[in-house]
Amino acid sequence: RMGGDDDDDDVPQLSSHTLAALQEFYIDQRQREGTKISQGFKQYSIGSIEEDWQLSQFWYDDETALCLANEAVLAAGRGGRIACVSAPSIYQKLKEQDGKDFSVYILEYDKRFSVYGEEFIFYDYNNPLNLPGNLIPHSFDIVLADPPYLSEECLRKTAETVRYLTKGKILLCTGAVMEEQAAKHLGVKMCNFTPKHTRNLANEFRCYVNYDSGLDRDSSCSECT
């Protein structure tokens, strides 16, 4: 190569401020991991897998996830089958209730969730019907979906998956701005209940259903706890 001592000129340099922020992030991450180990962190609890913002992942707070999980169990009924499409924090809450009479699958792009074994199904909304043969059409009593992006395309393609899987009941979580598209693609209406995330998001989130739900009677979790 030519250039001698100038070879390093094109290598981007991180500012001292950025380096300090990165160091703080990694220290915080190691501390959290250490806390999980020392507390015997539950495999299925929210936070056992960290959010990946590059995959547009934002976990629900504990109360919201529990409320939506309980709603899914009630809607599915005794011995019911539940599908969580791109909704891992709700799946994790359902797994904490493993003794109850229901079964649940998670359809998720993030392969870290393959630790949940046969219940994990790799899912890419860009190929909404690229699903394993053992997922029989219309075999789930309720499908709970949380599309990763607030776009018409993402909702439309996720809706294909939801309609393929559900016997009828749908619980959709997405932005308030998607209300019209949600009605168009899934026939769902906005509930009074307002979901909350562990981190404050810029966009207002809401829940939508196509059946008579406890979520429609209260904006809090009092119906579900």
Automatic annotation (TrEMBL):
UniProt xrefs under InterPro entries: DNA_methylase_N6_adenine_CS, Efm5/EEF1AKMT1, Mlase_EEF1AKMT1/ZCCHC4, SAM-dependent_MTases_sf
Example GO molecular function:
protein-lysine N-methyltransferase activity
Know the name of this protein?
EEF1A lysine methyltransferase 1
Q: Which reaction does it catalyse?
A: L-lysyl-[protein] + 3 S-adenosyl-L-methionine = N(6),N(6),N(6)-trimethyl-L-lysyl-[protein] + 3 S-adenosyl-L-homocysteine + 3 H(+)
GO BP, one example? methylation
What PROSITE patterns does the entry give?
Answer: N6_MTASE
Q: Per its UniProt record, what Pfam families does this chain match?
A: N6-adenineMlase
Q: Which GO terms describe its cellular component?
A: cytoplasm
Q: Does the keyword Transferase apply?
A: yes
Assigned keywords, A-Z: Cytoplasm, Methyltransferase, Transferase
**Which subcellular locations apply to this protein?**
Cytoplasm
Q: Which domain of life is it from?
A: Eukaryota
Q: Does the keyword Aminoacyl-tRNA synthetase apply?
A: no
